[in-house]
Design brief:
By secondary structure, this protein is an alpha/beta fold. The protein folds into two domains: 143 residues, Aspartate Aminotransferase, domain 1 (Alpha-Beta Complex); 234 residues, Aspartate Aminotransferase, domain 2. It is 40% helix and 13% strand. The chain has a seven-stranded mixed beta sheet, with helices on both faces. A three-stranded antiparallel beta sheet has the order 9-12-11. A two-stranded parallel ribbon has the order 1-10. α7 links the parallel β5 and β6. α3 runs parallel beside α11. The N and C termini lie far apart (50 Å).
């Protein structure tokens, strides 16, 4: 077996299940799950219709590169959304459809990392655990950058030693952040692009929550958008990941894309022809429909705004919490240790949240996820409100 498998940590939800083992919630209280970021809003009817109408495509092999029409639809959407120079994000060279961003993030790292060199993958901390696992299995070493409240949950990139950047082969960004929802501003992205040029590493920006934001007139900045703003129309050393899972409530479709540096994507496509991942044709056709429609996305954002508006004031009575810049998570402080908070909340109120320490790693004696929990406001509005009231009661009774 690959010895690097032994370096993998249990997934956060495995840790959560172990934490709650043996717990019995009080009878008569319904379970409310805020622990996993699985969208629960209805999937668009028109997307389901496209799949049903094209089930005959099950008899056809899909191509690794995906349909021209899908890459064209993605290019149109991304160019409009991120204010790119028309014709620079070409369907032929700058876009690859993928089966969700989880497998894309993992496989890109395997294709990019040069194991003959001492390779470092720089990651925010807390982080999406695929960043770390992909680094381990590629033979690289993760370097964790704390994302703390005093810097608006964005790593202090200027404090990173030059020696770390010198060994860096991939820098992972997550903007809007998971779990904080923090959006990295343009000036910071420009600084990171300059660093990537100086030290010759790839910036891999996970932007899966980019379409869930509170202000319709102020969408989050994307990495390619910053490239366009500085005239970097070849998107060199810059790759972004996007998905329909959160944007369109389609986590089961497993549909997303990777876009950016054409040189990187040429080699990545070659890897994928061996890797074996190709999106089913009926899913590609459904994805074309989803990327081409914005009305259902606006309705989705409105539903999340309604939840934040209802839930945050209730929780704010008993804990330090605020609505995020974007995304659908809350990242509040807990009045006592986060893992005990999550365990006891589940036991007494049947409300389930994810301890922050399960999303982070301890570095120099400090785990930046400690004494926080992640709450995903994915349940229906009434359930989110009920969960907030139960959490309020739980904290009041714990004081």
């Amino acid at each position: 077996m690959n010895p690097n498998l032994d370096r993998l940590h249990p997934y956060p939800f495995e840790k959560l299940a172990k934490l709650k083992a043996g717990i019995s919630a009080p009878e008569g209280i319904s379970s409310i799950a805020l622990s996993i970021g699985e969208p629960k809003h209805a999937s668009p009817d028109f997307v389901q219709d496209v799949i049903r109408e094209n089930l005959d495509k099950l008899s056809n092999y899909p191509t690794t590169k995906g349909m021209d029409e899908l890459r064209e639809a993605i290019g149109v959407w991304a160019t409009r959304r991120f204010e790119l120079k028309p014709g620079t994000l070409t369907p032929a060279s700058h876009i690859i459809p993928v089966n969700g961003t989880r497998e894309a993030i993992f496989s890109l790292v395997q294709a990019v990392i040069d194991p003959q060199e001492e390779a470092t993958v720089v990651s925010p901390n807390p982080f999406y655990q695929i960043y770390e696992g992909a680094a381990f299995l590629a033979g690289a070493t993760p370097h964790y950058l704390p994302s703390e409240a005093d810097n608006h949950f964005i790593p202090d990139f200027e404090a990173v030693p030059e020696s770390v950047w010198h060994k860096c082969q991939i820098l992972f960004l997550c903007s809007p952040g998971n779990p904080s929802g923090a959006v990295i501003p343009r000036d910071t992205l420009k600084y990171l692009i300059e660093l990537a040029d100086r030290h010759d590493f790839l910036i891999a920006s996970d932007e899966c929550y980019s379409e869930l934001y509170p202000d319709e007139n102020n969408p989050p900045e994307g990495l390619l958008q910053t490239c366009a703003a500085i005239g970097r129309d070849d998107y060199a050393r810059c790759i972004v990941f996007h998905s329909l899972s959160k944007r369109s409530n389609l986590p089961g479709l497993r549909s997303g894309f990777v876009a950016g540096d054409a040189k990187i994507l040429t080699e990545y496509l070659r890897y994928r022809t061996y890797h074996g991942s190709a999106m089913p044709i009926q899913h590609q056709l459904a994805s074309i429909a989803a990327w081409g429609d914005e009305e259902h996305v606006r309705q989705n954002r409105a539903a999340y705004r309604q939840k934040f508006d209802a839930v945050v004031p209730i929780l704010a009575e008993v804990m330090r919490v605020s609505a995020p810049d974007a995304g659908f998570y809350l990242w509040p402080e807990t009045p006592f240790e986060d893992h005990l908070f999550a365990r006891d909340l589940a036991a007494s109120q049947n409300v389930h949240v994810l301890p922050g320490r399960f999303l982070s790693r301890e570095v120099d004696g400090r785990n930046p996820g400690e004494n926080r929990v992640r709450m995903a406001l994915v349940a229906p509005l009434e359930e989110c409100i009920e969960a907030a009231k139960r959490i309020r009661q739980f904290i009041q009774q714990s004081e």
